[in-house]
Design a protein that fits this description.
single chain, 3-stranded antiparallel beta sheet, 12 strands, about 25% helix
């Protein structure tokens, strides 16, 4: 956008390719078309003589200052939290270190849980459902627990929610709506009803937390 407005732009990209989160998520089930978004933007950038791209450039604040730009935009991204903090919990809840805990970043980097996996989806957008499908494809049994009244609740706004729920249920995902998680034990999660706060344990071999994210500060 800045290039199209006529500015001289220098883009320092930490990795060896442009695309960031779009590239990472395009490898997940149903999101392959996102590659087209990345490719289109990269194509537009390459047409602009006033935009310079520097790949594999991890710069610190001193190097940015030395560059001498008139204005700096910081877009360093974020990582999914591993402590469950999001909507239901504003503080980390009790967690037993013996339980294998995964985040969406772990799965996108190639890590694969085994056995029965509980997904705690307090993000309420597409990620929880997409990763449930991925885990089913990898041979796991999956229970998706969400405090929301719908799976991937925000997708009601994009008219996708009905199809997401239908698809997951057809694939064998167990769906628990209006339930949160209050603690993670060594071989179970403690779930609670969002209306009564009554709790019950749910045995599992791994937990995938789809909660909120923390910005990358380095």
């Amino acid at each position: 956008a800045l290039g199209a407005r006529g500015y001289e732009v220098a883009l320092a990209e930490r990795s060896s390719d442009l695309g960031g989160r779009v590239s990472a998520e395009s490898g997940l089930p149903g999101l392959a078309e996102w590659v087209r978004v990345r490719d289109w933007r990269v194509g537009q950038i390459r047409k602009m003589d006033n935009v310079s791209v520097y790949l594999e450039s991890h710069v610190d604040s001193e190097q940015v200052a030395e560059f001498g730009a008139d204005c700096v935009a910081i877009a360093t991204g974020a990582k999914w939290r591993r402590d469950g903090v999001s909507r239901q919990h504003v503080e980390p809840f009790p967690t037993d270190a013996a339980m294998p805990i995964f985040t969406p970043d772990d799965l996108m980097n190639g890590a694969v849980p085994t056995g029965h996996v509980v997904i705690y989806d307090d993000d309420h957008y597409y990620m929880g459902g997409v990763l449930a499908e991925l885990l089913i494809q990898k041979g796991c049994s999956v229970t998706l627990v969400t405090p929301a009244a719908y799976v991937s609740e925000w997708t009601l706004n994009t008219l996708e929610q009905h199809e997401i729920h239908r698809r997951l249920a057809t694939m064998g995902v167990t769906i628990e709506l209006n339930r949160g998680i209050t603690a993670i034990g060594k071989d179970y999660v403690q779930t609670n009803c969002m209306f009564t706060d009554m709790t019950r344990p749910l045995c599992c071999g791994a937990v995938l937390l789809v909660s909120s994210r923390l910005e990358n500060k380095s």
